[in-house]
Amino acid sequence: MKQFVVVGLGRFGNSVAKKLYNMGYEVLGLDRSEGRTQEAVEFTTHVIQVDATDEHALKSLGLRNFDVGIVGIGQDIQASILATLLLKDMGVPYVVAKAQNELHGKVLWKTGADRVVFPERDMGTRVANNLTTTNILDYIELAPDYSIAEITAPDFMVSKSLAKLDLRAKIGINVMAIKTGDNINVSPTADAIIKEGDILVVIGSNKSLNKVEDHKK
Length: 217
Prior knowledge:
By secondary structure, the protein is an alpha/beta fold. The chain is 35% helix and 28% strand. It starts with a strand and ends with a helix.
């Protein structure tokens, strides 16, 4: 079973730790705030009050034994960068770090982060897309111009096969999976028929995904 260490138990770190813990993983929570560490007792395997920029304190915790480190430190960008650097230096194989902005993200990449996330920006993108489109259920940005989206099959797709729809050529999107009720068809073949109420997991440029909303046969 994977072991996770979450550094910084603000809203982001708190949410990640709680989700991982509820999924059955071992989670060590670290925060310099006594109040936050006390609150995290209920949704972490262990929680320790510690300054994540204190190299000696972190080394004493044996963090090299953890599989994944999540740096969720909020406004203190310097502490975020230093904590990321220390986790990598101590041998944590995979480190995910939260960034406040693009510049912060670039520094985290150069510091050694294996993945950089932008919770506020990404959530803003999801909310905006969910508010302005009727078909898009969820939206994950892969790069500035490309995303994965879950969409409810629009009318023009219903009762047609993927081959007949030819979405890659006509719109520029690829269907990765089709959810029908509780069943999911991963990597559907060209003869797969889209049914009313199906949810499609698609990938493509943001421009192509936006075409789904107003595309006409």
